[in-house]
Design goal:
393 residues; 2 domains; mainly beta; seven-stranded antiparallel beta sheet; 36% strand
């Protein structure tokens, strides 16, 4: 199955697509780039047109992928996050050059669709540098497809479910996407790079450009807003809300007395309303499970409670998540998503989170500190917080 269809959308649909704010914002991002991936809400008019003209059933879909491209696209076979049968794309505007599908060459004309089988090689030639807007390329599930081998998602749950994709790239080099600079590989990825490593922008994953695909999500290690940290204020030990702390505030450590805050950063996390033990979600630590606490503590799944011993199961899970067993201030780091005492926080929504790093002559080292009445947890190191997905305050 392959072919092209002219005059897909109505004039009003074309006008809608060309004048959407999301389309203009995405086009502005082309400066310095050759492609920008984004999505828009699908209107009933566009939904029914794609059903009638292309046979696409989008009855359960709320958005469709689009992209701006400038310059030629090399010959490639489309890849996607799911198995699919056909590629669907619509050129919204005219462009010089041609779209080459297999051995056939077609002019790039506004409001023209192409539908072809998965596995069919295609490219563009002679397109120049004038940007062109496409609906798609997508598969029959309205998922973006193309030359991509790395796919970026806002959360681990999205990466596993292939929902709410940020963007994708045809390169194994880790990109700066939506201001996130630290990424982890979801377990549904097919490439050989280790999944228990945090990757930074510029790192290169291993892949063969054919069957090795990576589904990536940002890593965040933090306290929820409202966490109280043991500090010294005007010579008095007191627990202070983390959102009130500043650079220079003295924080009590487990082995080294008081240390000044070198960095403090904040951000946000979208927490699912499920019980799934994901890394990038919030966990509730309650006084009933942690006697050192005076009130509930909420931390992200990769944040560590410091403990004296680990069970064999905890060791196995830590190696799976982290690649090795880490120690801070002569205590083991037990991340919340592995600690059976920590319960997934089931309040769905976006929450403000914070983390801090204390002064240290070795910028790769961290400390144990006391929160919410006395539970010993880890800080960030200066290096880690400097390179984190959080904003310094």
């Amino acid at each position: 199955m392959s072919g092209f269809i002219k005059n897909i959308f109505t004039a009003s649909d074309i006008e809608y697509l060309n004048n959407l704010p999301e389309v203009a914002e995405a086009k502005a991002l082309l400066d310095g780039r050759n492609v920008v991936y984004f999505s828009i809400p699908v209107t009933e008019s566009i939904r029914s047109t794609l059903q009638a003209r292309l046979g696409l059933d989008l009855s359960t879909v709320s958005s469709i992928p689009l992209r701006w491209i400038k310059g030629d696209t090399p010959s490639h076979i489309d890849r996607g996050a799911s198995t699919f049968e056909h590629t669907y794309l619509v050129y919204v505007n005219d462009s010089e050059g041609s779209f080459v599908l297999g051995n056939e060459s077609y002019p790039i004309e506004a409001n023209t669709a192409f539908v072809f089988n998965e596995g069919l090689s295609h490219k563009t030639e002679g397109t120049g540098l004038e940007p062109r807007l496409l609906v798609g390329p997508m598969n029959e599930l309205a998922e973006p497809v193309g030359i991509s081998v790395t796919f970026y998602y806002p959360t681990q749950a999205d990466a596993l479910a292939n929902t709410n994709i940020f963007t994708s790239y045809g390169s194994y080099v880790i990109q700066d996407v939506s201001s996130y600079t630290h990424w982890r590989i979801a377990s549904n990825s097919t490439g050989p790079s280790p999944q228990n490593v945090v990757y930074n922008v510029g790192d290169t994953l291993t892949g063969n450009n054919r069957t090795d695909f990576y589904y990536l999500y940002p890593t965040v290690i933090c306290f929820k807003e409202g966490t109280k940290v043991l500090c010294q204020i005007d010579g008095v030990e007191t627990y202070q809300p983390i959102e009130t702390l500043k650079v220079g505030t003295l924080v009590k450590t487990s082995r080294d007395g008081y240390k000044k805050i070198e960095l403090i950063s904040s951000g946000s996390i979208h927490n699912p309303g499920t019980q799934e033990r994901l890394e990038d979600r919030l966990y509730k630590c309650s006084p009933a499970k942690y006697p050192e606490l005076k009130e509930d503590l909420y931390i992200t799944g990769q944040h560590s409670i410091l403990v004296d011993t680990l069970t064999e199961t905890q060791r196995e899970q830590l190696l799976k998540h982290m690649g090795k067993i880490f120690v801070t201030d002569k205590k083991y780091r037990l991340i919340a998503c592995v600690d059976e005492r920590a319960e997934p926080f089931q309040s769905e929504g976006t929450h403000t989170i914070y983390h801090l790093a204390l002064e240290h002559e070795n910028k790769s080292m961290n400390y144990g500190i006391y929160v919410n009445g006395g539970l010993l947890v880890e800080t960030c190191s200066i290096n880690t917080l400097n390179k984190s997905n959080l904003k310094s305050i």
